[in-house]
């Protein structure tokens, strides 16, 4: 992580030195070459960060507050009932299903010898 940070810092420093050198020497063609990428970055930043805020509410960036729906007493009672399940102490847990014995009966002759 430190290696990546130092490489990025050195690259940024060299880019800054190059821009200052081009500006002091009067070579403005470097800035003409950077104009299109800078405009492209600004347009992409505008599209991804600023424009979705405006189109989401439809009112120029001012978002509408969401209306909260108050749950009914019946719903609150159901939720409270499911939260108050008794905890089972010990190793066994109670499951909401059970095994129902079939009406055919068991016949050892029909069972396969090797499972």
Average of per-residue pLDDT values: 76
* Rg of Cα set: 35 Å
Shape: elongated
Number of helices: 3
Instruction: Tell me the total number of β-strands.
Output: 0
Keywords: Membrane, Transmembrane, Transmembrane helix
If you had to describe this structure to a student in words, what would you say it looks like?
The protein is mainly alpha-helical. The chain has a domain at 2-57. Helix content is 56%, strand content 0%. The protein has helices at residues 2-25, 29-57, 73-83. The radius of gyration is 35 Å and the shape is elongated.
Gist?
By secondary structure, this protein is mainly alpha-helical. It has a domain at 2-57. The protein has three helices and no strands.
Secondary structure elements and their pairing?
Blueprint: H1 2-25, H2 29-57, H3 73-83
